[in-house]
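#dry-run=false #mode=assembly
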Amino acid sequence: QVQLVQSGAEVKKPGASVKVSCKASEYTFTNYYTHWVRKVPGQGLEWMGIINPSGSSPTYAQRFQDRVTMTRDTSTSTVYMELSSLRSEDTAVYYCANTRGTAAPFDYWGQGTLVTVSS
Amino acid sequence: DIQMTQSPSSLSASVGDRVTITCRASQSISSYLNWYQQKPGKAPKLLIYVVSSLQSGVPSRFSGSGSGTDFTLTISSLQPEDFATYYCQQSYSAPYTFGQGTKLEIK
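#status=ok
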């Protein structure tokens, strides 16, 4: 059974950066794409980007293009999402989700990581 | 970007009711339409993929239909555990956008 375990909650000040991890277990890590999705309180789900199995050429949503970096560490089966220049509007729960392909549904999700941005 | 529009945004219904949620894409997405259920404090859960395929373990009271730009999710007989927020999502092309969600509440 695929499991994705994310890092714990974070509290950051405006202007800071946050790096959230997503560790996969018990499956072939190298065959899966990882997406990042966030849920801002009171709003819907927002797709942030995707990183492929090799970790090369991530694709980001345009609104995050200048602030987000997604990386992959195959030695630890872990994917990272770093968001910089944080503002209060980035307060959200951030999820990783794995898929078997770029057009595949998001069938495996992490438990979510709450990032709170507050001065 | 492909815009996904769900209706209604919220819905009150009773246990046993038949409920339909609609989702419209701003352009054709072929059959790359998925539905998710999210409960408070939990990660979204995949219910239906490629319009009408039921994810393993999902009850058969959930069904999906549609093609091109117009899609529906139907719950044939609401159960207490079905009260949640539902999202459609297109996996046709990046950015893989979601609808704004439909909150299903108990009447």
